[in-house]
What we know:
With 236 residues, this protein is an alpha/beta fold. The chain is 30% helix and 24% strand.
Amino acid sequence: MPTKLHILVPASGLGLRFNADRPKQYQPFLGISLLDHCLSQLLSLSYTGQFVVGLAEDDLWWETMDSSKSTSINTVIGGATRAETVSHMLDALHDVDPQDWVLVHDAVRPCVSKSSLQPLLDVMQATQADGLSLGRPIYEAVKRVSDQGKVLASERREGLWTIQTPQVFRFEALQKSLQACLEESLSFDDEMMALHHLGYTTGMVQGSALNIKVTTAEDLPLAEHYWQIMQAQEQG
């Protein structure tokens, strides 16, 4: 039986660094919300599995979103941490093969499209790895700095990448890795880090510099500009 591709979008974060009246995934983006835009792009993928969005227990905005009316999207209540939220979302999947693929994407990375994600999906079809992530090599000089702003060391940047999403994982590898981290009270920066804890193999696929994560208010107009550049490139 061919493996399926399931899509998970954790959207239960509070976005405290955004300092706004609502979580950043619900901030306006090109006439809709960041979350609506992000979900519409992922729904355009040729996925064959299930689509799950993880929400905060006290979410006040989801029901007002256009995406909430989609019959293709299921929702679950997330947890106190990202690991708990993604774990709840995995539990919501049914009739899953251990080798099925699970795509995890940050709700606040709106500058993705079907064509920009195709390189990741192409590698996914051929890889022997248990997980893959989009990312970018680091080209700038890298310094290790103290909390007080003192430069402690210069780091070699060769072989260093910044991580993006989507990331894709074998269902069994992701589920076991998250469970281990939860049982051991380990935190991680991304799901790939959880896989490394259990020794699973992972790989990188170069992504676009336009795949920005909206973290602060100043990132929002930049993301809108990047999206317009993407559209011009894809139409040209």
